[in-house]
């Protein structure tokens, strides 16, 4: 059945070095429910290490959690990669790990990267440097995500850094993406006015939260469920599905 769900499909847990320590599964779930969100996605930088804990933390609450990760391309473009299952996200994460440089994370410079359980209890520290670019192109990430059973959406495309439009300057022809993500700093009307050439792309607006207060209830997705195929249908306005963005 078609229904509208408030969705914030881009957020970071304590596995992202830039995220606050409050970004643990039970507090993220609590904040999502307090905000009236129906659907969130967990998207740490270049790793799916905490997706299983997030999915488990939301179990029985009615909140849908889409497992994902935010992958950085060799052009330093960020893409949110979303999957139906934690296994799919982890398999893509394992592939991504093989395309990261071998460096170790410098906690003093970037912050710590914590793997936690569903209660938010510390399990271990990820030592690899996650906040960096892979050696994969934007096209390779889009194709690889699809081959792994998911969908890739260019992240915060209105931003001056780590964005498809800023770093490449355009959406490559034939790039198989269902839509684009705009940040909290842009409204749909502003973005549409600035990019008439991108009118055919659906938009979602996500919080890209690194702290609880940054989670965002601006995107309503009308769909028959929370599978990634339903998100794609909504972004493409197919079969009665669609996306409605609030400006504030
Ligand atoms: Zn990003
Ligand atoms: Zn992000």
Structure characterization notes:
This protein is an alpha/beta fold. The chain has a single domain, classed as TIM Barrel (Alpha-Beta Barrel). It is built from eight helices and eleven strands. The chain has helices at 25-35, 51-58, 86-97, 107-110, 138-147, 164-167, 188-194, 228-235; strands at 3-8, 39-45, 64-72, 78-82, 114-116, 122-125, 151-154, 179-182, 202-205, 219-223, 242-245. A seven-stranded mixed sheet has the order 7-4-3-2-1-10-11, with helices on both faces. α1 crosses α2. The protein starts with a strand and ends with a strand. The mean pLDDT is 97. The protein binds zinc ion (ZN) (2 copies).
Key terms for this structure?
248 residues; alpha/beta; TIM Barrel; two-stranded antiparallel sheet; 26% helix; 22% strand; binds zinc ion
CATH architecture grouping: Alpha-Beta Barrel
Order of helices and strands: EHEHEEHHEEHEHEHEEHE
| Structural Rg | 17 Å
* Secondary-structure class: alpha/beta
pLDDT < 50 stretches? none
Total number of strands? 11
Q: Strands across the major sheet, in which order?
A: 7-4-3-2-1-10-11
Q: Largest beta sheet, briefly?
A: 7 strands, mixed
Tertiary shape: globular
Q: Would you tell me which CATH topology applies? A: TIM Barrel
Q: Compute the number of helices.
A: 8
Average the pLDDT over all residues and give the rounded result.
97
CATH superfamily caption = Metal-dependent hydrolases
Small molecules held by this entry: zinc ion
The proportion of strand residues reads 15-25%
């Amino acid at each position: 059945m078609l229904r509208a769900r408030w969705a914030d499909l881009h957020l970071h847990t304590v596995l992202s070095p830039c995220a606050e320590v409050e970004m643990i599964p039970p507090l993220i779930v609590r904040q999502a429910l307090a905000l009236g969100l129906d659907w969130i996605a967990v998207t740490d930088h270049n790793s799916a290490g905490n997706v299983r804990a997030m999915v488990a933390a939301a179990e029985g609450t009615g909140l849908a959690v889409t497992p994902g990760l935010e992958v950085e391309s060799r052009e330093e473009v960020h893409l949110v990669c979303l999957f139906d299952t934690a296994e799919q996200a982890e398999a893509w994460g394992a592939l991504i790990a093989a395309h990261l440089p071998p460096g170790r994370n410098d906690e003093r410079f970037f912050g710590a990267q914590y793997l936690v359980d569903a209660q938010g209890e510390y399990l271990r520290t990820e030592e690899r440097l996650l906040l960096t670019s892979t050696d994969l192109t934007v096209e390779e990430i889009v194709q690889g995500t699809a081959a792994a059973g998911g969908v890739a959406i260019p992240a915060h495309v209105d931003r001056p850094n780590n964005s498809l439009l800023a770093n490449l300057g355009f959406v490559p022809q034939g790039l198989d993406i269902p839509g684009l993500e705009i940040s909290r700093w842009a409204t749909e009307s502003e973005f549409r006015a600035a990019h008439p050439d991108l009118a055919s792309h659906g938009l979602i607006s996500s919080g890209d939260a690194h702290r609880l207060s940054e989670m965002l209830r601006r995107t309503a997705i009308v769909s028959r469920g929370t599978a990634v195929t339903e998100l794609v249908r909504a972004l493409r306005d197919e079969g009665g599905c669609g996306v409605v963005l609030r400006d504030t």
